Amino acid sequence: MGGRQVTSKRQAIAAILDAAGSTPVICTTGYTSRIAQSLGHRPHNLYMTGSMGLAAAIGAGIASATGRPAIVVDGDGSVLMNTSVLCTVGSMPDLPLTHIVLDDGQYASTGGQPTYSERHDLAGIASAAGYRYVMSTSEPAELTATVARRTAGEAGPLFVHCRLSTSVEDPGPRIAEALHEHAARFRRAVLGQPAAG
Predict the structure, then answer these.
(1) pLDDT tens-digit profile of 15-36?
(2) pTM higher than 0.85 for the full model?
(3) Residue 14 parent element (H or E)
(4) Which is nearest to 181 in space by CA: 66, 43, 33, 70?
(5) In the chain, is it the N or the C terminus that has fewer CB atoms within a 10 Å radius of its CB?
C-alpha cells in the first residue's frame, strides 16, 4: 500500500492536520511540534516539549481514556528510542489510535545525526507488536484520506510509516506557551470543557 512520492515533513504534517478536524493530534518533540504550530494552531494539538519517545504513549492514553480517536505524529528517532510503546499499543486491539511515523532518517532538531532507520523495518516491527493495521505511504493525499477515515471512528491501532525527504526546512519558532498552560488548554479542548476566564 502507498505510493513512491517522497514528501517533506511540512507537507506530511499539513496533510495530516487538514483532515484531523477536532481529533486530538499529539506531535512529538522538536521540529514536528514546531512545524505543526507554524501551520496554524489548533486547540486539539498537543505540542510535546522534551519527553522524546513518549508521543505514542500519550496518544494511547488519550484514546484509551476517552474511547475516541487520537492521532500521533511521531518520528523515526522517537520510535526507535521507545519501541516498547509499540508492544503496549499492539496489545490493545480496539484502541482508536492512528500512529504516524514521519521517517527522515535523522534527528533533525539536534543537528541531523542519523537514526539509521533505513536499517530497520519500522512497519514490520509494529506489525509484529500487534498493531491491527499497518501501512506505508509517502503521498500527502493518502495521508489526508487515511486520517479522514480514522477520525470517523475506525477501531484498532493503525501504524503508518511515511518515508520523507531528508531536506532541511525551517520549522518555525519554538513553542512559546508555558507547558502547564498548553496542557490545560489541550485538556479543555479534548474534554469539551470551557476555557477559563
Answers:
(1) 999 999 999 999 999 999 999 9
(2) yes
(3) helix 9-20
(4) 43
(5) C
